[in-house]
């Protein structure tokens, strides 16, 4: 991941600041940076969202395609993730530089989102054992300024909220040959229930305390971070420790509690915002990438 | 301004694709009217004084038709009277999707300068573009787009003319659209309403297409035929054995019946019977069809009903069908029965047919709808002539002709259509008296018992001493006073011929009878004056005998030389079941041709001289068709009718193509000619045989149709004739009667559409038909009246009605025989 060079003195300054619940940009330990979300930014996807969190910019697009359900769960659809670390985000991603990070990110996202507790996978089933919707979630990193997981997860939630899957129905002729028929009304769509879709809260251990939404400088001061995915009810669905350092059990417990608290608080304004944007309908002024 | 149009599409692989197209809107699209002076970059199309006299619109106006009007009333729009029409892009696009011909016609109209049609690209105009609303169907959206564009025009023109009189009129036949447009403040009329209001142009009303109005909609929901299956399902059905593929052959007697011959190896069923229009399902003769077999319980026997396709409405056909189903089932005659589920390959060819008038009477306007097309199966007088391009010149008699068409000779009432040019056929190839002619000769040395000692084939030059007709030759033989060389040799030949014939008959050759009809023609008008069956003389038989002998000798020779590729002719033994009808008629038992011939010879009845002939006619019907074949492709060479183990056609190269091939083979065999690859290829030879057989059959049909046609002409002039006849067949609803005097057959039907049918009891074992009190048996003598039924001018036919025996309610009183009647009376 994009790294910045931080001197010893700077590190001490940051660690001391965190200890006093005062960070470089004036935030508290459990505060996010300024966040901007816009949905329906890519017209040829079925659902899309763009988020900027600080200087981290992420674009997520969801494409729904008809596929075959997995043999183990014939009555469920599934999600597939692909994270593209473009060299736009940072020169380090040039060539195959971003590949490893991309795979790591998409694997984690798959673990967090592709389960029936997060997304109602049953609603993606068209014909059990035969056809289901496969949601291809493509994540494009436009700019990296720390806390990629949180930004991506929020963008995914927004994009899934925005996703409109065309309604299909199965017609069967006399011989039992099934055929999928599309509704000819483009407004006749299926929406996903995103209520249970979790958000990832990454907590970085800095000194004896931990912070959310760490910037790159803060990240450089941290030895280990904990990635917690939390639903709107505060249920933790996934925890993952990252980084080379170690965490003592007590601080893990503390960090989990903090993550739950922050995550719960994150969902409410996010959903409000999405609903509000939706209600504007066509009158909404599109910002796009130039805003 | 940029908008995007989004729609979802299903891909061929079954996926769903979301397609987004960019859609640019402009504000510089010209309205195309002369009144609008804004832009001058292109000449305005719509005139300022767009006047047409109308009761409804007294002001100058432009027309805006909606999609349905363009689709259905294109005849009106094409009329030169209709000018100054705005065709919206929405309308044009919809028309293009729905009907390519209509689109082409409207495009042509737009390109015509005098018509002043203008295409307004409303979809790209900033003010007239609309987006589809949630819950709105594509059609509703287009209707709305049309209304919006019409409204824009109305406002635009009003502004440009400062409230002048120029207006737009929206034409629509859609009631909902009309109401909405009225609410929207547009001038809107139904097309019919508008056209009828036009003063001085009543002819336009005739061009109006009839709209099925909600009130008097003709509910023609009755599905006439079950739908054909799609090709993919037919293919999978054939693959898994549910369906069978075969060639459909229509029954010549019964238009409701047909047979499908399954041409697949290893199939235990090779013939499927189809009965009823529904099961035939629009298959036409020689189509390759897919059939579905019925379960065994529904198998039926071929019906013995004679059906003539004279019922123009389906109800009758359906009655007939149910009647067919009531045929008493006797297990042994049941055949695999099925129905056509799809047509794999149509036998496209020109058909001769006529359109029958619709049963539904229309009150106003023209009805362009064609309800039904009937094919004339029987009364067709088309003559098909076999034309075969020859790659190799015909070589015989030393005369060489390069590359010309060979016909099989067709005899159509004394008119010959020759296979080879006339010079060849009637001069160079005829042995005329005292002229030297090149010939191919078959020379026998025979003893007095007509046993062949030596056979010799050679090319020869012949100077014939005399050319005689059959009658002349007969006269010389019979005239005991004549004792010249020619007459003597004739008598000698005749004696030998009789021995030959006797020997042949001994072996079991059949003398079968089929009455040959000859017309006496009026030399001026070519109308038949009289009609009689051909009389056969002894000399006919004499010539025939030697011809047969020549054919047999040649057949043996070419087979000996070319065992693989000799062109021979065979006549298969008929299967015993074919004799059923004959056995029933004569109660004679037959298993060989000899037995048949003997029993035929013995079968005479006192006081009934015609009985034997009748039997022979019937026996002919039992026979198989004699066919050409290639010796390398078949093992059974036997000629049943002639009782010869081998046979071919050699004697008439000027009228049969087969003979030419045989000539070539023989010429090679005697080292008089060289061979060529096609001649020695047994597959090519075999396909040639198939074609010959097919053409021969077709020529026969044409000949038969020609005879039928001229029989009809004959009876047309004769008026009503009473004649004696014999019952040839007894059918379930009719008796087939042979009139010996004219050699013609006809059916007397007992069921009638107008009257209640008499009580009919049909016994298939006899077979007998009991009508009221009287029982008809085969060969019963009856008296009928023959007349021409001209009630349907396109479907004339000869009608027979019973006079004797008198059955009340069935037979007709003896009509006055009026030979010169101009207008034949119609019987029921």
Automatic annotation (TrEMBL), chain A:
Places the protein is found: Cytoplasm; Nucleus, Nucleolus
Sequence ranges assigned to domain Exoribonuclease phosphorolytic in this UniProt record: 32-166, 196-261
Any one GO molecular function term: mRNA 3'-UTR AU-rich region binding
Name under which the protein is recorded: Exosome component 7
Alphabetized Pfam families for the sequence: RNase_PH, RNase_PH_C
SUPFAM superfamilies reported for this sequence: Ribonuclease PH domain 2-like, Ribosomal protein S5 domain 2-like
Record-level GO cellular component terms: cytoplasmic exosome (RNase complex); nuclear exosome (RNase complex); nucleolus
GO biological process: one example: nuclear mRNA surveillance
UniProt entry keywords in alphabetical sequence: Acetylation, Cytoplasm, Exosome, Nucleus, RNA-binding, rRNA processing
Gene name of the record: LOC109111969
Oligomeric and partner information: Component of the RNA exosome core complex (Exo-9), composed of EXOSC1, EXOSC2, EXOSC3, EXOSC4, EXOSC5, EXOSC6, EXOSC7, EXOSC8 and EXOSC9; within the complex interacts with EXOSC2 and EXOSC4. The catalytically inactive RNA exosome core complex (Exo-9) associates with the catalytic subunit EXOSC10/RRP6. Exo-9 may associate with DIS3 to form the nucleolar exosome complex, or DIS3L to form the cytoplasmic exosome complex. Exo-9 is formed by a hexameric base ring consisting of the heterodimers EXOSC4-EXOSC9, EXOSC5-EXOSC8 and EXOSC6-EXOSC7, and a cap ring consisting of EXOSC1, EXOSC2 and EXOSC3.
InterPro entries for the chain: ExoRNase_PH_dom1, ExoRNase_PH_dom2, ExoRNase_PH_dom2_sf, Exosome_comp_Rrp42_subfam, PNPase/RNase_PH_dom_sf, Ribosomal_Su5_D2-typ_SF
Keyword Hydrolase attributed: no
Homology family: Belongs to the RNase PH family.
Species per Swiss-Prot/TrEMBL record: Cyprinus carpio (Common carp)
From TrEMBL, chain B:
UniProtKB keywords: Exosome, Nucleus, rRNA processing
Domain RNB residues, every copy: 377-672
Residue ranges annotated for the PIN domain, each copy included: 61-179
GO annotation terms (biological process): nuclear mRNA surveillance of mRNA 3'-end processing; rRNA catabolic process; rRNA processing
Region ranges (Disordered): 305-326
GO molecular-function term, one example from the UniProt record: endonuclease activity
Chain intervals with Acidic residues compositional bias: 311-322
Similarity section: Belongs to the RNR ribonuclease family.
PANTHER family, per database record: EXOSOME COMPLEX EXONUCLEASE RRP44, RIBONUCLEASE
Gene3D superfamilies cross-referenced by the UniProt entry: 2.40.50.690, 5'-nuclease, Nucleic acid-binding proteins
SUPFAM superfamilies xrefs: Nucleic acid-binding proteins, PIN domain-like
Assigned GO CC terms: cytoplasmic exosome (RNase complex); nuclear exosome (RNase complex)
PROSITE patterns per UniProt: RIBONUCLEASE_II
Pfam family, one: RNB
Keyword rRNA processing: yes
Protein name (database record): DIS3 exosome endoribonuclease and 3'-5' exoribonuclease
Localization of this protein: Nucleus
């Amino acid at each position: 991941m994009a790294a910045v060079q931080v001197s010893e003195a700077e590190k001490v300054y940051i660690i001391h600041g965190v200890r006093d619940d005062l960070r470089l940009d004036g935030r508290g330990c459990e505060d996010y940076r300024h966040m901007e979300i816009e949905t329906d930014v890519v017209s040829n996807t079925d659902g899309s969202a763009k988020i900027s969190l600080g200087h981290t910019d992420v674009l997520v697009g969801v494409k729904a395609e008809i596929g075959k359900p997995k043999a183990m769960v014939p009555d469920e659809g599934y999600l597939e993730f692909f994270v593209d670390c473009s060299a736009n985000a940072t020169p380090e991603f040039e060539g195959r530089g971003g590949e490893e990070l991309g795979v790591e990110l998409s694997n984690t996202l798959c673990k967090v989102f592709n389960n029936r507790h997060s997304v109602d996978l049953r609603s993606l089933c068209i014909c059990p054992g035969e056809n289901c919707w496969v949601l291809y979630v493509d994540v494009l990193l436009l700019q990296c300024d720390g806390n990629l997981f949180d930004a991506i997860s929020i963008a995914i939630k927004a994009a899934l909220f925005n996703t409109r899957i065309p309604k299909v129905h199965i017609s069967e002729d006399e011989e039992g040959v099934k055929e999928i028929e599309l509704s000819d009304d483009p407004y006749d769509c299926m929406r996903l229930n995103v209520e249970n879709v979790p958000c990832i809260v990454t907590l970085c251990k800095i000194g004896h305390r931990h912070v959310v939404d760490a910037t790159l400088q803060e990240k450089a001061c941290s030895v280990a971070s904990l990635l917690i995915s939390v639903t709107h009810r505060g249920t933790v669905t996934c925890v993952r420790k990252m980084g080379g350092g170690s965490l003592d059990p007590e601080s893990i417990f503390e960090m989990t509690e903090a993550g739950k608290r922050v995550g719960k608080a994150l969902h409410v304004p996010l959903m409000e915002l999405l609903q509000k944007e939706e209600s504007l309908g066509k009158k909404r002024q599109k910002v796009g990438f130039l805003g | 301004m940029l908008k995007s149009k989004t729609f979802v599409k299903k891909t061929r692989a079954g996926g769903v694709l979301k397609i987004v197209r960019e859609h640019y809107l402009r504000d510089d699209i010209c309205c195309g009217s002369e009144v609008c002076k804004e832009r001058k970059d292109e000449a305005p199309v719509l005139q300022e004084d767009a006047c047409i006299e109308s009761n409804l619109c007294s002001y100058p106006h432009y027309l805006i038709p909606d999609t349905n009007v363009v689709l259905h009333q294109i005849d009106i729009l094409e009329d030169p009277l209709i000018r100054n029409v705005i065709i919206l892009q929405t309308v044009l696009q919809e028309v293009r999707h729905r009907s390519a011909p209509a689109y082409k016609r409207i495009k042509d109209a737009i390109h015509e300068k005098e018509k002043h049609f203008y295409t307004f690209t409303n979809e790209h105009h900033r003010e007239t573009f609309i987006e589809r609303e949630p819950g709105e169907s594509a059609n509703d959206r287009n209707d709305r787009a049309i209304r919006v564009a019409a409204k824009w025009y109305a406002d635009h023109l009003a502004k440009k003319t400062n409230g002048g009189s120029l207006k737009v009129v929206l034409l629509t036949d859609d009631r909902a659209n009309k109401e909405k447009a009225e609410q929207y403040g547009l001038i809107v009329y139904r097309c019919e309403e508008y056209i009828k209001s036009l003063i001085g142009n009543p002819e336009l009303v005739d061009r109006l297409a009839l709209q099925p109005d909600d009130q008097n909609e003709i509910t023609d929901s009755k599905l006439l035929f079950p739908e054909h299956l799609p090709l993919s399902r037919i293919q999978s059905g054939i693959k898994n054995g549910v369906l069978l593929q075969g060639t459909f052959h229509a029954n010549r007697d019964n238009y409701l019946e047909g047979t499908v011959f399954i041409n697949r190896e290893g199939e235990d069923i090779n013939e499927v019977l189809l009965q009823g229009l529904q099961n035939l399902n629009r298959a036409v003769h020689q189509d390759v069809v897919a059939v579905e077999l019925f379960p065994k319980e529904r198998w039926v026997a071929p019906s013995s009903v004679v059906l003539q396709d004279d019922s123009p409405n389906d109800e009758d056909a359906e009655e007939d069908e149910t009647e067919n189903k009531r045929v008493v089932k006797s297990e042994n005659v049941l055949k695999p029965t099925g129905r056509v589920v799809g047509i794999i390959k149509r036998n496209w060819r020109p058909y001769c047919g006529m359109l029958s008038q619709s049963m539904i009477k229309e009150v106003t306007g023209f009805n362009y709808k064609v309800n039904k097309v009937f094919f004339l199966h029987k009364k067709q007088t088309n003559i098909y002539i076999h034309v075969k391009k020859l790659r190799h010149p015909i070589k015989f008699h030393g005369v060489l002709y390069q590359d010309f068409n060979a016909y099989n000779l067709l005899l159509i009432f004394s008119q010959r259509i020759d296979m080879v040019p006339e010079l060849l056929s009637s001069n160079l190839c005829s042995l005329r008296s005292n002229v030297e002619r090149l010939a191919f000769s078959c020379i026998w040395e025979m003893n007095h018992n007509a046993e062949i000692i030596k056979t010799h084939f050679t090319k020869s030059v012949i100077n014939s001493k005399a050319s005689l007709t059959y009658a002349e030759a007969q006269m010389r033989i019979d005239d005991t006073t004549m004792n010249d060389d020619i007459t003597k040799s004739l008598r000698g030949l005749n004696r030998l011929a009789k021995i030959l014939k006797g020997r042949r008959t001994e072996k079991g050759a059949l003398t079968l009878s089929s009455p040959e009809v000859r017309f006496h023609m009026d030399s001026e008008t070519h109308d038949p004056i009289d009609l009689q069956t051909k009389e056969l003389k002894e000399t006919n038989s004499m010539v025939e005998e030697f011809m047969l002998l020549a054919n047999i000798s040649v057949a043996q020779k070419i087979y000996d030389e070319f065992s693989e590729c000799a062109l021979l002719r065979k006549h298969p033994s008929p299967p015993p079941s074919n004799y059923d009808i004959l056995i029933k008629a004569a109660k004679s038992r037959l298993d060989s041709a000899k037995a048949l011939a003997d029993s035929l010879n013995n079968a005479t009845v006192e006081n009934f001289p015609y009985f034997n002939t009748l039997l022979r006619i019937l026996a002919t019907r039992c026979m198989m068709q004699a066919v050409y074949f290639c010796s390398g492709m078949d093992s059974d060479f036997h000629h049943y009718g002639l009782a010869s183990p081998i046979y071919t056609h050699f004697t008439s190269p000027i009228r049969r193509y087969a003979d030419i091939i045989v000539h070539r083979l023989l010429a090679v065999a005697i080292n008089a000619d060289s061979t060529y690859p096609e001649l020695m290829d047994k597959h090519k030879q075999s396909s040639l045989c198939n074609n010959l057989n097919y053409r021969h059959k077709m020529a026969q049909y044409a000949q038969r149709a020609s005879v039928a046609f001229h029989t009809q002409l004959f009876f047309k002039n004769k008026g009503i004739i009473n004649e004696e006849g014999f019952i040839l067949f007894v059918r379930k609803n009719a008796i087939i009667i042979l009139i010996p005097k004219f050699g013609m057959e006809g059916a007397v039907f007992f069921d009638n559409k107008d009257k209640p049918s008499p009580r009919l009891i049909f016994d298939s074992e006899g077979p007998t038909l009991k009508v009221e009190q009287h029982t008809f048996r085969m060969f019963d003598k009856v008296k009928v009246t023959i007349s021409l039924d001209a009630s349907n001018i396109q479907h004339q036919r000869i009608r027979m009605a019973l006079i004797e025996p008198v059955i009340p309610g069935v037979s007709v009183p003896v009509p006055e025989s009026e030979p010169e009647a101009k207008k034949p009376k119609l019987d029921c």
